[in-house]
Design a protein that fits this description.
Layout (H helix, E strand, L loop, with lengths): L1 E8 L20 E3 L7 E7 L5 E8 L7 E6 H6 L7 E11 L12
Parallel strand pairs: 1-5, 2-4
Antiparallel strand pairs: 1-6, 2-5, 3-4, 3-6
Length: about 110
């Protein structure tokens, strides 16, 4: 488990290649993390409002001190943090499935 500040990224990166060589889709449930292996699924919970979302780590970042994860626009929307830009979060690793088809959804 990791706790810290999440941010999000979207329009300026939409359609570009991620570190995993996938095309970034700001409407997908993905994230950038500095150290977790690419292909890792994590549960991210906004500790301010309790909202949670499952995301797939397919990129590297964030590169701003004090931030632990960069979320896609869709994931940030699900956590209700788009307007503020950042939110305190708890990150729990769910596992990896590098060969499985990625299907992300909100956590129950």
């Amino acid at each position: 488990m990791q706790e810290g500040l999440a941010s999000w990224y979207g329009p300026g990166f939409h359609g570009r290649l991620t570190s995993s060589r996938e095309v970034y889709d700001q409407y997908g449930f993905t994230a950038a993390h500095r150290t977790l292996p690419l292909g890792t699924w994590v549960l991210v919970t906004n500790t301010t409002n309790g909202r949670a979302v499952r995301v797939y780590v397919n990129d590297r970042g964030p590169y701003i001190d004090g931030r632990v994860i960069d979320l896609s626009f869709a994931a940030a929307q699900a956590l209700d943090m788009v307007q503020l830009g950042t939110a305190p979060v708890r990150i729990v690793v769910l596992g990896t499935a590098p060969s499985a088809r990625r299907v992300a959804s909100r956590a129950p």
